[in-house]
Structures are given as C-alpha cells and as structure tokens.
Amino acid sequence: MNQNHIVKKYDEDLKQLNDLLARMGGLAEAQLKSAVDAVVRRDSDLAARTIESDDETDELEMKIDDLVVNLLALRQPVAADLREIISALKVSNELERVADCSTNVAKRAIRLNEYPAIRSTTTIPRMAQVAQYMVKDVLDAYIERNVEKAMDVWHRDDDLDALHTALFRELLTYMMEDPRNITPCTHMLFIAKNIERIGDHATNIAEMCNYLVNGGPFAESRPKTAAAARTKNGETSA
Amino acid sequence: MNQNHIVKKYDEDLKQLNDLLARMGGLAEAQLKSAVDAVVRRDSDLAARTIESDDETDELEMKIDDLVVNLLALRQPVAADLREIISALKVSNELERVADCSTNVAKRAIRLNEYPAIRSTTTIPRMAQVAQYMVKDVLDAYIERNVEKAMDVWHRDDDLDALHTALFRELLTYMMEDPRNITPCTHMLFIAKNIERIGDHATNIAEMCNYLVNGGPFAESRPKTAAAARTKNGETSA
After folding, report:
1. What is the CB neighbour count within 10 angstroms for residue B149?
2. Per-residue model confidence as pLDDT tens for chain B (238 residues)
3. Which residue in chain A has the smallest CA separation from B104?
4. d(CA A191, CA A164)
C-alpha cells in the first residue's frame, strides 16, 4: 500500500511537471502575441508590459527546476522516467528562450517607435502567428508524446524560414530606397530574427519529443548542408 | 570498503563531468576564434571548416547528457551533488549555444565574402577576444567554484556591450554613406550580435557558479531596468 502511495504521488509529480510546462508554454505564446501587437500598433506601453511579464516565465522556470531536483532526490527515478524528467528540464529551458526572444521583440518595438513607421509590417504578424502555433502545437505534441504532430511542427519551420527570407529582402529594399529607413529597418531585421529563432526552439522541442518516444533523431534529418544552402539563398540560419 | 569504492567512483564521475565541460569550453573558444579569423581574413574555407567543427561540440553535449543520466541513475545523488549535476547539464547547454553563435558567425563570413570588403572590421576581433576570455575564465571559475572570478566575468559583459554599441553605430554610418554597404553591413550587424550573445551565455554560467556556491543570485544584480536602459542608449539587449 505504501508502495502504491509512492507510485501515485510520483505520477502526480510528473503530471504537475507537465502542467507547469504547459503553463510556461501558454505564457510564452501570450508574450509573443503581445510583443508583436506592440510592434504593429506602435504601442510602447504594451511593449513595456510585455517586457515585465518575462519575470513570470523566469519564476515558472525556477519552479520547474526545483520540482525536477525534488523529483530526482525523493523518487530516484531510473531509465525512462529519468529521461522524461531531464527532458522536461530542457523543454523548460527552450521555453524560457522563447520568452527571451519575445522580450527582445518588445524591446525593439519601443526603439522602433522613436522613428516614423516603415511600410509593410504585415509579414511580422504572419511570422508571429506561425511561430505561436508552432510553440502551442509542439508543446501539445510533447505532452501527448505524439511524434507525428511533433514532426509536423518541425516541418513548419521551413514556412517560417521562407517568410523570414522574404521579409529580409523587402527590408533591404527599403533601406536602399531611403537612408532614413536604415535604422528602423535594422530593428525590424532583429525583430524578424527573434521570431525566426522561436521556430528553432519549437523544432528543438519537437526533436526532444521524438527522442523520448523513439530514442533517436527524426529519420528524415535536417542536415547541416541544407541549413547552409538556406543561408546561401536566404537569411535564415545565422 | 564497498562504500568507499562507490564514493571514489562517484568522485571520478564528477571529475569526468568537469573534464568534459572544460573540453567543450575549449572547443567553443577555438570555434569562436576561427570563425572571427574567417571574417577578418575573408577566408571562406576556414569558415566552412568552423561550421563543420560544430558536430564535435554537439557530440560532447550528448556525452555529457549521457553521463548525467548515468550518474543520476546509478549514484542517486541528493542535495548538493544533485544540484551540481543538474547545473553541469545547464552549463553544457550554454556552451552548446556559444558554439552555435560561433557557427552563425562563420556562416555570415561566407556570405560577407560575396561582397567587397567593408571598412573597420577591427572591432569584431576585439569583441571576439573579450568574449573568448569571458568563456575561458567563466569555465575556470565554474570548475573551481570561484565566485569572485565568476563575478569578474559577469562585469566584463559591460565592456562587450559597449563595444557592440559602438560598432552598431559605426555600421549604421557606413550604411547611410553608401547603399552598396547595406547588405554586407547587415551581415556584420548579425556577426556582432552573435558575439555579444556569447557574452550573455558566459554571464549565465557565472550566475550558475554563484548559485552553486551561495545558493542565490549575485547580491549586485543586473536589473531588467538597467538592461532596458542599455537598450535605450545602445544596441545591446535584443
């Protein structure tokens, strides 16, 4: 009976770990959304609030760290459970970096508002929407251990990269047209880069999901050469 | 006697963990150096070799992951030992990202060589040197559990940020002078950003060192408002 109790408590702890990850993911999504809203609406107050909300994600990350350490110390898990717990730690780290990227977007939004509006910020919200759904879906996939869903997110990163490349070229054109566009456009370049990086964090989580289920990388790997080729043509990899 | 043996083996495992971290740090430093050499000498072959060498860092990170999981499963450490092992995992993750930043610099070096040379690449190697020593010294500090040394690295990040801000402004000037500079200068902006991010990873490791020794953040914290102020004046935080 005592053994049962211990096992049950352990399951509850694991559930709590997944709940915390889901909450952290929800926060990271919301933060991205409000950061990009701040860019589109030129709303520096919203940007400032977005920056402040990063503390909440940091706190959640610390909570996850503490829970992991407690789980390891008290339950002394082995094999699959151990992998699961360690991977929760890594997922929370990726989510924390998603939140960082959103914070960076919000900081740039404030800088952008020091300059007249530049044309075409429509690609930015499109990129943000793709990234936001990638984060949402990959966390669902991770929690459900659904490799197919994770793989789907992993593929969607190509769409995000394509949008990023298109935007990069568009911004270069504006900069060449009028030197007054140069400074605001460089901020926009970094905003786009931060959103593109969120996609990379989502693909990292997808790979962890696959690793947990299948113990290895996706059969169809994203080779370094393809990444290099993308850099060659576009603006995605660095 | 058996107990002694277990403890001794455990110490050896911890030493192996630190050795792997030191090796990973050495590789990350070397990679940064050769990436920046590739930029300065306009040497695309060196850049390509630098990109390839990232595999070695990835392999080391996986080795560290495996060792950590084995340590947790076989030794079932508690309290301080547990914190130490979890934090090794986090340090290796930071080092992997340092290597990623260097790879990004190398990728941009190849792109840059498609354009005529731009003036003043002297700040880039200076930034790289500061970043390289930060990585080296913070790892030494971490392995020696030397908080004073870690704190010193943490402060040096301000120097790196100042160099980055100066370079950002310089690059904007070149872009405004001649539109043909715009594309190569955007690559240079991202190269500088990647080196600046390496400094951030080093300060993260400094904070982990302090956490291991003192169990909390540095007394003199790097507040969000200060970071925001830096963004206001310069080009550092996002």
Report:
1. 17
2. 445 556 678 788 889 999 999 999 999 999 999 999 999 999 999 999 999 999 999 999 989 988 998 888 888 777 778 888 889 999 999 999 999 999 999 999 999 999 998 876 689 999 999 999 999 999 999 999 999 999 999 999 999 999 999 999 999 999 999 999 999 999 999 999 999 999 999 999 999 999 888 876 666 655 433 443 343 334 544 5
3. A238
4. 10
Q: When comparing pLDDT for A36 and A7, which is higher?
A: A36
Best residue of A161, A230, A237 to probe chain B, by most B CBs closer than 10 Å: A237
- Distance separating alpha carbons of residues A80 and A101, to the nearest angstrom: 31
C-alpha to C-alpha distance for A9 and A16, rounded to whole angstroms: 10
| DSSP of A41-76 | HT-HHHHHHHHHTHHHHHHHHHHHHHHHHHHHHHH-
Question: Chain A partners of B111 at a C-beta cutoff of 8 Å?
Answer: 231-232
Cβ contacts of A193 on chain B, cutoff 8 Å: 190
Structure tokens belonging to residue B33:
């150096």
Kindly provide the ipTM of the predicted complex, given to two decimals. Answer: 0.85
Helix (H) or strand (E) holding B4: helix B2-41
**Interchain CB distance below 8 Å, A186 and B172:** yes
Phi and psi of B234, rounded to 5°? -135, -140
C-alpha triplet B218, B219, B222: angle, nearest 5°: 65
Interatomic CA distance for residues A84 and A89, integer angstroms:
9
> What is each CA distance from A199 to A143, A227, B159, B194, B195, in whole angstroms?
18, 14, 31, 18, 21
Q: Compute how many other C-beta atoms are within 10 angstroms of the C-beta atom of residue A14.
A: 18
User: b vs e for B207-216, b when ≥16 Cβ sit within 10 Å of the residue's Cβ?
Assistant: bbbbbbeeee
Min distance A149 CA to chain B CA atoms (Å): 25
Q: Do A176 and B190 touch (CB under 8 A)?
A: no
As a whole number of angstroms, the distance between CA A9 and CA A17 comes to: 12
Residues of B in contact with A39 (CB under 8 A): none
CA distance A30 to B26: 38
pLDDT digits (tens, 9 = 90+) for A143-164: 999 999 999 999 999 999 999 9
**C-alpha R_g of chain A:** 20
Phi/psi-derived region of residue B234, left when phi > 0, alpha when psi is between -120 and 50, beta in every other case: beta
For B135, other C-beta atoms within 10 Å of its C-beta total 24
Name the nearest CA neighbour of A183 among B105, B116, B168, B237.
Answer: B168
How far off is chain A from B108, nearest CA to CA, in Å?
7
Structure tokens belonging to residue B229? 């102020």
Q: Please enumerate in sequence order all residues whose Cβ is within 8 A of that of A118, keeping only pairs 6 or more positions apart, or say none.
A: A174, A181, A184, A185, A188
How many CB atoms within 10 Å of residue A138? Answer: 30
